[in-house]
């Protein structure tokens, strides 16, 4: 076997580098990690969401290769809404490649890697939905330990349950962290991986209580420190793991993306496409329903009762079509898919098979040019940060799963697919319920200086899989050792 460096890898969903920098005085263990090692930004996937990002971290494949770009919509989520084929990652992760070389691995709560599979060591996985059963290749570990709920997705809290939801989530975080320490201490592993998902959850639901610039910030409130409190729990855990691991192990603390205030405005792209005559819509009773829906959402936002509407909206037949306005769109040559929810990232699908090469080129070039010039009529500001073709950012066997045209709006705008809106821009009626959103840049911290990492200020997420192997094998040519 090659000479190797034992590793602890902690992947915290949504761990943000800017929050770390601002709160370093309250994070002594992370501060020491940074002082002794390397701290860099991690450039996430497009769109920067957990499902495609964790898949890329595990496999080293960009989304154009693995074809996964689905995102969570906590406000409308049902268990049948998420479809993830774990065969994409099963046997292809960095821990599989280390395991196949005869090294012992410990893997706890690897999001999406479910059910668990055989490794040289142990693997304990939670389902996508926290309410599902825990899976392990070592049933004896399940029997001997009090395993807390694992997994990612939960229902969003209502006003009446904010206090309980926070208390339960913080307690769950501590229980999961303590389990990680115990398993690391008792099950000797050359490479130990642990996934923590609760920090991202807290940021989504409690951001408005901690950010004084948020339009829904309520003033002084009992939740003002919830984000720093969960960062302090991560810091506590990091300190314990460093102490238990000792100098024999290097420690990677990283995230899949960052976090920031969720969009407060919308770009009503279907309405813009309709006014530009790229799509057509039925002008009948459906149009009246659409107008009524838009007026009602604006009213619910002003009255701050959107959460109650959402609870019942899930039960309405065809609710998804109503939200996306697909019940009213007649044109099927161009459409705006459910690509990244109401976030600054979006795309437009064009059916190439219905157009000649010349027609397609003309349509794409025209749309890109017009989109790049769209201004908010209220502020006269350009809405788009950038817009282009999918091939400009990714290449791969599954690139055609991406919209033909992709774009990034300015951070305050999200994609709204409603039609017959008053303007092409509007307010995000769901901001009060989900006030935290994802940021492109995440975190990468390694406890030591290592030439394999380099001194670039930014590491691309596609590099993480190979970088872990390089650090582990203590050899920049280590990728050749993959089984």
Short description:
With 483 residues, the protein is an alpha/beta fold. It has helices at residues 17-22, 28-36, 50-59, 63-66, 94-100, 139-144, 162-186, 198-210, 226-245, 269-275, 285-303, 306-313, 319-324, 357-372, 464-473, and strands at 6-12, 38-43, 105-108, 121-125, 135-136, 191-196, 249-254, 258-261, 265-268, 334-335, 345-350, 384-389, 405-409, 413-416, 425-427, 436-439, 441-446, 458-460. The strands form 4 sheets. Strands 5-4-3-6-1-7-17-2-18 form a 9-stranded mixed β-sheet, sandwiched between helices. Strands 10-11-13-12 form a 4-stranded antiparallel β-sheet, with helices on one face.
Outline the structure in words.
By secondary structure, the protein is of the alpha/beta class. The chain has two domains: about 5-260 and about 435-480, 3-Layer(aba) Sandwich (Alkaline Phosphatase, subunit A), CATH 3.40.720; about 265-425, no CATH class. Helices cover about 35% and strands about 15% of the residues. The chain has a nine-stranded mixed beta sheet, sandwiched between helices. Strands 10-11-13-12 form a four-stranded antiparallel beta sheet, with helices on one face. A three-stranded mixed beta sheet has the order 14-9-15. The longest helix is centred in the middle third of the chain and has 25 residues, at about 160-185. The protein is globular, with a radius of gyration of 23 Å. The model is unreliable at about 475-483 (pLDDT under 50).
């Amino acid at each position: 076997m090659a000479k190797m460096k034992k590793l602890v890898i902690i992947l915290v969903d949504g761990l943000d580098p800017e929050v770390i920098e601002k709160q370093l005085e309250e994070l002594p263990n992370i501060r020491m990690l940074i002082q002794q090692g390397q701290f860099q930004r991690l450039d996430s996937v497009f769109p920067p969401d957990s499902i495609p990002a964790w898949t890329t971290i595990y496999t080293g494949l960009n989304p154009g290769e693995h074809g996964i770009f689905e995102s969570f919509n906590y406000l409308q989520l049902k268990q049948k809404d998420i479809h993830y084929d774990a065969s994409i990652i099963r046997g292809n992760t960095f821990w599989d490649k280390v395991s196949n070389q005869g090294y012992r691995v410990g893997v706890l709560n690897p999001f999406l890697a479910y059910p668990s599979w055989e490794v040289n060591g142990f693997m304990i996985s939670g389902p996508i939905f926290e309410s599902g059963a825990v899976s392990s290749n070592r049933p004896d570990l399940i029997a001997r330990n009090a395993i807390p709920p694992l997994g990612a997705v939960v229902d969003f809290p209502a006003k009446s349950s904010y206090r309980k939801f926070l208390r339960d989530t913080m307690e769950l975080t501590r229980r999961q962290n303590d389990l990680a320490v115990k398993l690391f201490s008792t099950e000797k592993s050359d490479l130990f991986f642990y996934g923590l998902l609760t920090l991202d959850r807290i940021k989504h639901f409690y951001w408005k209580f901690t950010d004084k610039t948020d339009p829904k910030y309520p003033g002084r409130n009992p939740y003002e420190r919830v984000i720093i409190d969960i960062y302090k729990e991560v810091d506590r855990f990091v300190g314990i793991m460093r102490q238990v691991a000792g100098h024999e192990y290097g420690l990677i603390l990283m995230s899949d993306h960052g976090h920031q205030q969720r969009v407060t405005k919308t770009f009503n792209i279907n309405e813009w496409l309709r006014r530009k005559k790229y799509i057509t819509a039925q002008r009948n009773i459906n149009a009246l329903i659409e107008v009524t829906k838009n007026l009602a959402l604006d009213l619910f936002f002003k009255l701050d009762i959107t959460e109650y509407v959402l609870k019942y909206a899930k039960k309405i037949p065809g609710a998804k079509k109503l939200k996306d306005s697909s019940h009213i769109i007649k044109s099927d040559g161009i459409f705006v898919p459910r690509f990244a929810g109401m976030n600054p990232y979006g795309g437009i699908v064009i059916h190439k098979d219905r157009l000649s090469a010349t027609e397609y080129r003309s349509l794409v070039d025209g749309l890109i040019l017009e989109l790049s010039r769209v201004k908010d009529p209220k502020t006269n500001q350009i809405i788009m940060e950038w817009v282009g073709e999918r091939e400009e950012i990714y290449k791969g066997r599954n690139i055609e799963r991406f919209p033909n045209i992709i774009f990034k709006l300015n951070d305050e705008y999200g994609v709204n697919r409603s039609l017959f809106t008053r303007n092409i821009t509007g307010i995000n009626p769901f901001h009060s319920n989900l006030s935290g959103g994802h940021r492109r840049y995440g975190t990468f911290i390694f406890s030591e200086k290592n030439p394999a990492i380099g001194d670039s200020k930014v590491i691309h997420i596609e590099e993480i899989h190979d970088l872990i192997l390089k650090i582990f094998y203590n050899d920049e040519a280590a990728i050749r050792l993959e089984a």
